[in-house]
Structures are given as C-alpha cells and as structure tokens.
Amino acid sequence: MRQLLLDAESYYTRSQVHDALARAFGFGADYGGTLDALYDRLCVCPPTRLTLRHAEMLVVNLGNYGELLLRVLAGAAAENPLFVLNTE
C-alpha cells in the first residue's frame, strides 16, 4: 500500500488543494480538479493510505468548500476499501 502525506495547513485555495492531490496521487492531465472528479478518481485508486495533517485547516481556510472536500475524501474511503483516509 502506498503511503501519502499531505499537510492541509498550507492550502489556501481550491486550486492549491487539487494541485497537491493531483501530484500526490499521480492524476493525469485529464483530472478535472473538481470534487466530483476527485471522488471518481479516489473510488478507483489502487491501495493507498492518505494521511492528511491539520485537516481542520481546510475548513478554516476554505470554508464550506473545505467541509465538502473532507466529506468527499471520507465518502471515497467508505466506497473504496483500498483507499484509507487518516486525518490528524
């Protein structure tokens, strides 16, 4: 299982978050950078554990979008047993 670590404390815009996720997961150029596209990719990703440090900062910095993003991550983890989400 691959292990990914992202620190949400440094993301202040939607594009920063999606760019970081795309780099970490190796999403191709066709990744749309939306919550729907993220969910679709995570639901079919290979065995991966994502540790998201300072997850609460997504809500602080991005407001409602940060809340939605955390729901998408949790939903994908519930849907895909190969994707594990740890928040710190």
Write the layout of secondary structure elements.
Blueprint: E1 2-7, H1 14-25, H2 35-42, E2 48-53, H3 56-62, H4 64-79, E3 83-87
Parallel strand pairs: 1-2, 2-3
Average pLDDT metric:
97
Number of helices: 4
What letter string, H or E per element, gives the SSE order?
EHHEHHE
Sheet with most strands: 3 strands, parallel
Per DSSP E runs of 2 or more residues, the count of β-strands stands at 3
List segments where confidence is low: pLDDT < 50 over at least 5 consecutive residues: none
Strand order of the largest sheet: 1-2-3
Percent helix among the residues?
Answer: 40-55%
Class by SSE composition: alpha/beta
Strand content: 15-25%
What report would you give on this structure?
The chain has 4 helices and 3 strands; from the N terminus they run βααβααβ. Helix 2 packs parallel to helix 4. It has a 3-stranded parallel beta sheet with strand order 1-2-3. The protein is globular. The longest helix is centred in the C-terminal third of the chain and has 16 residues. The two termini are 19 Å apart. The chain is of the alpha/beta class.
Summarize the structure.
The protein has helices at residues 14-25, 35-42, 56-62, 64-79, and strands spanning 2-7, 48-53, 83-87. It has 88 residues and is α/β, with parallel strands linked by helices.
Features:
alpha/beta, three-stranded parallel beta sheet, 4 helices, 3 strands, 19% strand, globular
